[in-house]
Amino acid sequence: MNGSVKSGSAAKQTRGERARDTRRRILAAARAEFVANGYHAARMATIAERANVSVQMLYFAFGTKAKLMSALIAVAVLGEGRVAPPDTEWYAALVGESTAAGVVRSFVLGSGEIFERAGPLLLSQRAGATTDPELAADAAAGDALRAATYRDVIELAAAKGPLRHGLDIDAATDILVAIASPAMHTEFVSDRGWSHDRTIAWLAETLPQLICGDAQEHGAVCR
């Protein structure tokens, strides 16, 4: 009987591992298809073929092309473990910064990998949202969540030191949302030919100067 229980547990674990492997294959195939062809031209049948699964399984797992894109973006932003940025180690280090400029700089440096993973997908999502209401709703929800997170960063920075003269919380948040974005990262790397490291270094140098009144005073600029 004990052997039977162990065998059943092993079988369940194996099925779980297979399911996770299948999901990873689907997401990898979807990323390749969306990035290569854009949301509108991407075909679920091609994604299924790339992932070596049936189209029926693909729809069963994700429901719609819009939901597949949204799941892919969630993994790109949160990682496989689905850990929100405020719960990460780099965000905890950001909270420990002693200056406004240090907070903004640390946020940019910590977000770099997210920009790299999510940028091309978010551009594809934005293009697809023009004609797909479901995708548009998901994109709007994601934008609102990002803006709220960025506002939290600005409020934290303002608690550590002054914002640049003439800026309030709203204006500083707008600057951070517009410039410290996956889309901006993709523009520099894919369209302008910058490396990822150069792009993040420039953002980490520039944004504290644009937003924080103590950027030069505390030497928070990244050279």
TrEMBL record:
Residues of the DNA-binding region: 43-62
Region of interest (Disordered), residue spans: 1-22
Entry GO MF terms: DNA-binding transcription factor activity; transcription cis-regulatory region binding
Domain of life: Bacteria
UniProt-listed Pfam families: TetR_N
Stretches with biased composition (Polar residues): 1-12
InterPro entries reported for this sequence: Homeodomain-like_sf, HTH-type_TetR-like_transc_reg, HTH_TetR, Tet_transcr_reg_TetR-rel_C_sf
Keyword Transcription: yes
Domain HTH tetR-type: 20-80
Keyword Iron-sulfur (UniProt): no
Keywords: DNA-binding, Transcription, Transcription regulation
Protein name: Regulatory protein TetR
